[in-house]
Amino acid sequence: MSATPAPHHEGPRLYQELLAVHGIMRRGAALVADSFARLAAGDPVDHKALVAASRWLVEFVHHHHRSEDELLWPVLREQFPAAVADLDRLTTEHEALDAELDALTEATGAIAAVLNGKGGANVVAVVGLAATAANPAAQNVRDILANHLGAEEPVLRTLFPQVPDAQITRLRQAVVDGAPRSGPHLVLGLMALPEPVPGYAEMRANLPAPLRWSTPLLVNRYRALARSLGAAGDPATARQAG
Q1: Backbone dihedral angles phi then psi of residue 92, each to the nearest 5 degrees
Q2: From CA 129, how far away is CA 33, in angstroms rounded?
Q3: Would you say residue 216 lies in a domain?
Q4: Which segments constitute the Hemerythrin-like domain (predicted)?
Q5: pLDDT digits (tens, 9 = 90+) for 90-141
Q6: Of 68, 109, 142, 223, which one has the fewest beta carbons inside 10 Å?
Q7: Is residue 207 part of a domain?
């Protein structure tokens, strides 16, 4: 009688961490889209803060998708041939989202160029660029990303628990090693507010100790950023996580 295979524990934990990353991206995309909508309407928004938040979002989403396409998907394709079609579809969705991220990057760059021009910001030009280019791109990023993550999570919820722990540990380390270091206040603030995202505990346990110790300060910095974007009354900044 053959021995029962040992259960895998790291796969389910990595899935919870993935949910936390997805929560950060969903909230970040909503924050940027809502802020560009306010700016396009002529409401008071800190232009430079919005440019910085938008650039952070693009970098964060790009890194996450590269990690999936280059690190996670090859392992899953090899181990689960029946899931190849699903993984190929998710990669195609990444490519569609990349086109919208590129449009947002171009529009944000145009706004940054106006802000960096001599004689101070031309508010009319900034609002015009937001209305004609940045706002539509940001809305598309938010909507396409939400649909993509909703389709991706059921696939990975089934596959991750079946991957051996040693492979999960190796993959997690590779993802962490390549992760962008910018915007820790955005990562922690979006992860914590208005309540902890699913997978918060697992994600926070993997953070370097200095980041865990600095969480209250970084979350407060995120609150200040959200207020500067006119989002003080939004659900994403309404109350602190317990």
Answers
A1: -60, -40
A2: 14
A3: no
A4: 15-155
A5: 999 999 899 999 999 999 999 998 887 654 567 888 889 899 999 999 999 9
A6: 109
A7: no
Buried b (16+ CB within 10 A) or exposed e, 92-113: ebbeebeebbebbbebbebbbe
Closest to 131 (Cα-Cα) out of 48, 230, 41: 41
In angstroms, the CA 65 to CA 235 distance is 27
Task: Please answer whether residues 197 and 101 qualify as being in contact, where contact means their C-beta atoms are separated by less than 8 angstroms.
Answer: no
202 to each of 18, 170, 184, how far by Cα in Å?
10, 17, 17
Rounded CA-CA distance 210/21 in Å is 19
Query: What is the span of the domain harbouring residue 39?
Result: 10-181
Structurally, the chain folds into a number of domains equal to 1
pTM comes to 0.90
Task: Give the rounded distance of the alpha carbon of 81 from its chain centre.
Answer: 28
User: Which amino acid is present at 137?
Assistant: A
Listed residue (157, 147, 227, 154) closest to 185, CA to CA:
227
Can you give the CATH number for the domain in which 116 is found?
A: 1.20.120.520
What distance in Å separates the CA atoms of residue 11 and residue 14, rounded to the nearest whole number? 5
Among 171, 142, 132, smallest CA distance to 58 is for 142
Q: Which residue has the tokens 């940027």?
A: 32
CB 186 within 8 A of CB 222: yes
pLDDT given at position 4: 46
Rg (CA), the chain: 19
**In the structure encoding, which two tokens stand for residue 93, read together?**
């969705």
- Integer Cα distance of 18 and 147 in angstroms: 16
Residue 20 covered by a domain: yes
> pLDDT class for 3, splitting at 50, 70, 90?
very low
Single-letter residue type at 94 = H
Tell whether 36 is covered by a domain: yes
